[in-house]
Design a protein that fits this description.
mainly alpha; two-stranded antiparallel sheet; 2 strands
């Protein structure tokens, strides 16, 4: 019975995509990906993404984050970034979507507050009022 439960758990904690096995990120992988997430945050701020602009033009987000995908795949799959850059497009997209689905809870928790911070920072820029900590 325990063996069957373990096999069932494996079905939900990893997925095969071709020769690759995609798993939920470990803490070490999250730490290694932190600079990538910071780059994504900066891109969103610089491009002044809002919910309205993302709904009107979702491709703008895709094109913004595409350069980050090889690094995310490399860290997630334990591969060289150059190898991930050489993947056929359809396989890379399938892998990227699988990585997102396997780590959706983490990404929602990361980017939910992130989108709030981005919107707050953009509003501060528009009004000239800082949203950062007070220096008093």
């Amino acid at each position: 019975m325990a063996e069957a439960a373990a096999k069932l758990e494996d079905l939900f904690t990893e997925k095969r995509v071709g020769e690759y096995t995609v798993r939920e990120w470990s803490l070490g992988q999250i730490v290694e990906l932190a600079p990538v997430f910071e780059q994504a945050r900066q891109m969103c701020i610089e491009r002044k993404f809002t919910l309205d602009t993302l709904v009107a033009d979702p491709l703008s987000l895709v094109t913004a984050i595409t350069p980050l995908v090889p690094r995310v795949l490399a860290v997630t799959l334990g591969q060289e970034e150059a190898k991930m850059r050489s993947l056929p497009g359809s396989q890379a997209v399938t892998l990227a979507l699988t990585v997102v689905s396997m780590n959706l809870a983490y990404l929602k928790n990361l980017f939910g507050p992130l989108m709030g911070a981005i919107l707050s920072e953009m509003r501060a820029e528009e009004t000239g009022v800082s949203s950062g900590p007070s220096s008093t």
